[in-house]
Give the backbone structure.
Amino acid sequence: MKKSMLLAACILSLNLLFACGGNEVILPPSGPGKQAVVDSTQTPDVPDTPDVPETPDTPDTPDTPDTPEEPVVIPEDAILVTNPLMEAYLSEVTYPEGDWTYSKILDYPGGGFEGVGDLPPTVTLSWNESASGALTLTLKEGDWSREYSVASGKKSCDVTNLVPNRKYEWVVTTSDGAEVASGSFWTKGHLHQIFYTKQVRNGRDLGGWQTKDGKTVKYRMVYRSGKPCENYADAAGIKNMRADGIKAQIDLREKSDSHDQSSPMGNDIDFFCSDIEHSYQTMLEEKAKVKATFEFLMKSLRAGKPVLFHCAIGSDRTGTFSILLLGLLGVPEPDICKEYEITYFAPEKWSVTNGKVDRLRTNKSRYLQAINYLLQFGSYKDFRGCVEKYFLSIGVSQKDIDDFRSLMLE
């Protein structure tokens, strides 16, 4: 087939999914989309640095400091891949240190009983050239790549769970390797959200947050979500988990014959059950279990295995473990709280208890049970130091702490 690329379009659409009763089937209603045209014949918005002609060798000169890398400039037409309902909260709200008297999360739509703000947008890649036989769409971003099967005659493919502030490249090929279409697009947003069918909700990457000393938590290293097991993850969802690179799973729940045996993603996925019954201060007091959980996480990361951790709904025990991990990395406590509060954007079953939204930054919240316990080890002005002293007090080694930061920050 003759190579051609007439037009490529990336259509951003929020597939507003919602939970129904009975068998809890998630239905994707249709909705309007936002157009973003990508044409491989055009000049990229952020062109690659041109090759510099070689110059003759010159005598050695004393070493000079490396020139700092220029920040990546995200083009204006980049596609938002964080749910816009959640993005608004993350962009507009700033909490002060040491003030837990109020919360802003309830000012934002997208949560509550039919929460949809935890669902990442979908990007539709389309092309004009048709082809007989099955096609393969290959999507790449840095060292990460994924292949999607495209039925014969189809001229589009939906992709989701995308990392923000990245350049993605894609190509569609026939079974014999002939190129049908190709293109690229940029993404933007505050958060790498994940959703795995049929109803693994309240999922997100811990990456993207900034630390007090100016570093950034790496993406695709550690994920959190509601339970991805039993009747919650179907074959397509498990395929998506594996495509995201997840190779280890931590189940924070108490041991049970129904869910502490192995990962639903397959026997090749490393699995650990923390056997934690409660959350917040009570969880932090289960020192041996927290220590064992963190050490399993470190073992996985050292082996180059990204980790997904979860409890039942991805809120309380999961939220407490997130506080520990982000706190240890040096993310400011007000931002840790924002990461904690966005559980509100998931449906009621994943975000509230007994019909009440009580996961807020207020003096009455359960969140503060964990924060106040950790503040016994220092001051909120050095929250990273508080969390580090907590980990040391339960027997985690300084090397594990240092290695965790080295592996997770850039």
About this structure: The chain has ten helices and 17 strands.
